[in-house]
């Protein structure tokens, strides 16, 4: 690997200054994506690596004023066992628990997962389902935007090279909400998602579906809530046939957006089943939950 400048920062201001210096730089958080990218044959390493791993105030989960705030340096291991998230955002805990292996979960961060923008990033579908917003800071100010407006295509976002992701926030789901995340990989561990789905369902006092969010992962060019399948559920009682129809609706949207490919024969029925199972898990119709 060619030599590069390495700057370990203990404050955000120092990191922003290093990113703004001539030649710019790449942020290093846990390094589980960046270091692999740098080691790829033929890749030129960035001229400057800006290590934010020790920057204060960018780690941890807080709840205030009806909002959940997550620091970008929070590791997947910390998310998976967060007591603050386990009830209101268990779909996010489940996604974090499904990332890689214990070593990757102890090192990899939610901020790196978002900023890397791989189609298989496991924490992104739950964050989209939870209507998360991202705060980005640069030397000239800060901006906040919905996560669904952040990605433009796989591995591409609207972030500028001088911006640091400093916060991920989402509203606490209303009482009566439950979520589920299901991941399908080639094996049970250290496996990237071939398909995944994150679902959040809110039931009213009569057990009727008041609101639903459905976000497939590794299925579409960019992550999005599937409005037409969500609309099918609103105002209805949880029911296996209804959930199967919603699953077929999500698969139909995938095909409409990506066209029919060699993998469609497999992905179409499998995505429909994942959606149905996730909805059933939310509404207690089955015990299916977790990664399969
Ligand atoms: C063996 C293995 C298995 C894996 N399995 C999975 C898996 O199952 N699911 C999954 O989703 N991912 C998986 N990954 C990918 C990876 O672990 C995650 O994407 C992880 O969350 C990346 O976080 P990081 O802190 O290591 O990011 P880094 O590698 O440090 O950074 C990744 C990118 O984000 C940028 N960045 C990081 N933080 C910020 C910030 N705060 N502001 C601006 N830019 C930032 C970096 O510049 C870089 O471009 C796996 C990786 C490995 C090596």
List keywords for this structure.
292 residues, 5-stranded antiparallel sheet
DSSP strand content = 15-25%
Report how far the terminal alpha carbons are from each other: 38 Å
Helical residue percent band: 25-40%
- The largest sheet has its strands arranged as 4-5-10-6-7
SS element count, helices: 10
What would the average pLDDT be, to the nearest integer?
94
Catalogue the ligands.
Answer: flavin-adenine dinucleotide
> Main sheet?
5 strands, antiparallel
Poorly predicted regions: 288-292
The coarse silhouette is globular
Q: What is the SS-derived class?
A: alpha+beta
Query: Element order, helices and strands?
Result: EHEHEEEHHHHHEEEEEEEEHHH
The count of DSSP E runs of length 2 or more, i.e. the number of strands, is 13
Give Rg in angstroms: 19 Å
Compact summary:
With 292 residues, the chain is an alpha+beta fold.
């Amino acid at each position: 690997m060619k030599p590069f400048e390495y700057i370990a920062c203990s404050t955000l201001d120092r990191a922003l200054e290093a990113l703004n210096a001539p030649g710019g730089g790449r942020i290093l958080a846990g390094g589980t994506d960046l270091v692999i990218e740098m080691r790829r044959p033929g890749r030129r390493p960035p001229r400057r690596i800006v290590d934010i791993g020790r920057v204060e105030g960018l780690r941890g989960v807080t709840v205030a004023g009806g909002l959940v705030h997550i620091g970008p340096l929070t590791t997947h291991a910390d998310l998976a066992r967060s007591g603050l998230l386990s009830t209101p955002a268990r779909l996010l805990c489940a996604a974090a628990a499904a990332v890689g292996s214990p070593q990757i979960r102890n090192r990899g961060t939610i901020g790196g997962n978002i900023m890397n923008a791989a189609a298989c990033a496991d924490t992104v579908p739950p964050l989209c389902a939870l209507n998360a917003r991202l705060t980005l800071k640069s030397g000239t100010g800060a901006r906040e935007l919905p996560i669904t407006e952040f990605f433009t295509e796989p591995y591409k976002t609207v972030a500028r090279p001088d911006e640091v992701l400093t916060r991920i926030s989402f509203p606490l789901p209303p009482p009566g909400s439950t979520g589920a995340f299901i991941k399908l990989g080639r094996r049970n561990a250290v496996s990237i998602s071939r398909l995944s789905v994150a679902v959040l369902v809110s039931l009213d006092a009569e057990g009727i579906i008041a609101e639903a969010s459905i976000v497939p992962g590794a299925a579409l060019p960019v992550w999005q809530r599937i409005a037409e399948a969500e609309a099918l559920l609103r105002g209805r009682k949880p029911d296996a046939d209804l959930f199967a129809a919603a699953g077929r609706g999500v698969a139909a949207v995938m095909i409409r957006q990506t066209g029919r490919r060699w993998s469609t024969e497999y992905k179409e029925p499998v995505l429909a089943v994942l959606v149905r199972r996730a909805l059933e898990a939310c509404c207690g119709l089955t015990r299916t939950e977790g990664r399969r």
